[in-house]
């Protein structure tokens, strides 16, 4: 992690010295940096057929764990002025939690001024998706095909056993605030179920409702929403309302399978499509269909409070020799209403086009994973009200270190005071410029 910080400092220093220069020579290789295959699948499904025959796409996919992706990307960006045209970074992907690290540098191109995207072409995108990628000088540094309002994805058969119904409106009413959510957790436990998979499941439902950023004037601040998540998770762990799993582990995703005993998971549309749907299957080699594992035995409701989580933004790297191609990719994958509609209907993703989402919400669209439910309409209000004014470059580190530091407290291995001390020790090592 220290190496990542050194690289980040080197990025800033290099920019300050004005060493980054454009190279006019054009190459025939489109280099795309990412941490998983989500964007690759969107690219292949909706743009690859339009790719010029003389262009080769080179996917540089580095796992996200332990900062490996950012380290790989940072090293490549630092060499951008030294390598041949065919080795230059052309496109790279960023997530919400660390987007500002790249937005506020000259390593990202302005998609309007430098790439040539028309303001009219992006007028139907959700405002917050552009706010996130706009630097302090008003330059828009990236676009996305998705908006990420979240909710509660619950197991229909378990809801029927616990509440007597699996209807999204009725289940939603039973879970419409945290007090009601706690009551259902108690009833689910009595029936032999876990309300949540583990410690981190509800984290984003709380952290996205913070009213103050993690850092103010280089001082770490702890929002009341974070303390509320800690209190709830401690309670749920002690009472057996969760299965003591950590997010992204096999123990967590096992709860999504046919034999799973987890009532539900908090997440946005990408979590449903990219994590839950494949994890629900008994046989990965058979179609995603009812009868294969728990596929189809799920539904969606808003839950106790609205929130959003994540998102992947497409950035154009300064020095790219393929800006005309990048413009076409951005127009196709983030601006085309027909493509946005097709992505949503095929994968269930909530895409970044207001008219498309409003039309699907009013249509007879059915999501097979969600038992035929049209979940898009449940996302609409949340999508228009997402506010990202509290984001900071520290969000990823803060979230990860807090969650890992609290696990021992949840399991009675350390006191709350010691858990906080462990958090501050870890975070100040990562960000030595901050203070408690």
What kind of assembly state do the chains in view correspond to? single chain
Computed CA radius of gyration, to the nearest angstrom: 22 Å
Strand order of the largest sheet: 2-1-3-12
What overall form do the CA principal axes indicate? globular
Distance between the termini: 20 Å
| SS content category | alpha/beta
Structure description:
By secondary structure, this protein is an alpha/beta fold. The chain is 42% helix and 12% strand. The chain has helices at 2-16, 38-46, 68-78, 99-103, 127-131, 156-163, 168-174, 178-190, 203-207, 224-239, 250-254, 269-279, 323-335, 337-347, 354-362, 376-385, 395-410, 416-430, and strands at residues 29-34, 56-61, 91-95, 149-155, 196-198, 215-216, 219-220, 242-245, 264-268, 298-301, 307-308, 312-316. A four-stranded mixed beta sheet has the order 2-1-3-12, with helices on one face. Strand 1 (29-34), helix 2 (38-46) and strand 2 (56-61) form a beta-alpha-beta unit. Helix 15 runs antiparallel to helix 16 (376-385). Mean pLDDT is 92; it is low at 1-25.
């Amino acid at each position: 992690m220290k190496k990542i910080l050194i690289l980040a400092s080197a990025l800033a220093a290099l920019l300050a010295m004005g060493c980054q220069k454009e190279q006019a020579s054009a190459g025939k290789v489109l280099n795309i940096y990412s941490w998983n295959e989500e964007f690759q699948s969107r690219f292949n499904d909706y743009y690859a057929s339009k790719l010029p025959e003389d262009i080769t796409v080179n996917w540089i996919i580095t796992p996200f764990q332990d900062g490996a992706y950012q380290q790989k990307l940072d090293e490549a960006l630092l060499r951008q002025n030294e390598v041949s045209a065919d080795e230059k970074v052309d496109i790279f992907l960023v997530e919400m939690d660390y987007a500002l690290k790249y937005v506020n540098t000259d390593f990202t191109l302005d998609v309007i001024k430098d790439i040539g995207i028309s303001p009219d072409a992006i007028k139907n995108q959700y405002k917050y998706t552009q706010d996130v990628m706009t630097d302090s000088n008003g330059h828009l540094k990236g676009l996305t095909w998705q908006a990420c309002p979240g909710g509660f994805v619950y197991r229909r058969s378990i809801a029927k056993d616990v509440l007597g119904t699996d209807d999204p409106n009725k289940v939603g009413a039973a879970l419409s605030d945290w007090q009601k959510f706690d009551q259902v957790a108690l009833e689910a436990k009595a029936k032999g179920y876990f309300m949540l998979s583990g410690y981190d499941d509800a984290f984003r439902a709380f952290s996205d409702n913070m009213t103050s950023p993690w850092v103010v004037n280089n001082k770490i601040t702890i929002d009341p929403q974070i303390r509320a998540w800690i209190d709830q998770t401690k309670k749920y762990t002690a009472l057996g309302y969760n299965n003591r799993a950590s997010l992204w582990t096999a123990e967590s995703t096992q709860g999504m399978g046919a034999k799973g005993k987890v009532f539900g998971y908090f997440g946005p549309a990408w979590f449903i499509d990219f994590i839950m749907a494949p994890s629900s299957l008994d046989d990965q080699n058979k179609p995603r269909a009812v009868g294969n594992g728990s596929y189809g035995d799920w539904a969606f409701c808003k839950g106790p409070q609205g929130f959003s989580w994540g998102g992947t933004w497409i950035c154009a790297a300064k020095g790219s020799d393929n800006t005309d191609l990048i413009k076409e990719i951005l127009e196709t994958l983030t601006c085309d209403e027909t493509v946005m509609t097709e992505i949503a209907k095929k994968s269930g993703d909530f895409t970044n086009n207001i008219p498309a989402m409003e039309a699907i919400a009013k249509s007879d669209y059915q999501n097979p994973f969600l038992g035929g439910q049209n979940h898009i309409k449940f996302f609409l209000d949340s999508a228009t009200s997402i506010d990202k004014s509290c984001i900071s470059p520290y969000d990823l580190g803060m979230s990860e270190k807090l969650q890992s530091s609290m696990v021992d407290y949840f399991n009675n291995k350390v006191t709350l005071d010691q858990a906080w001390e462990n958090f501050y020790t870890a975070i100040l090592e990562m960000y030595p410029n901050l203070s408690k």
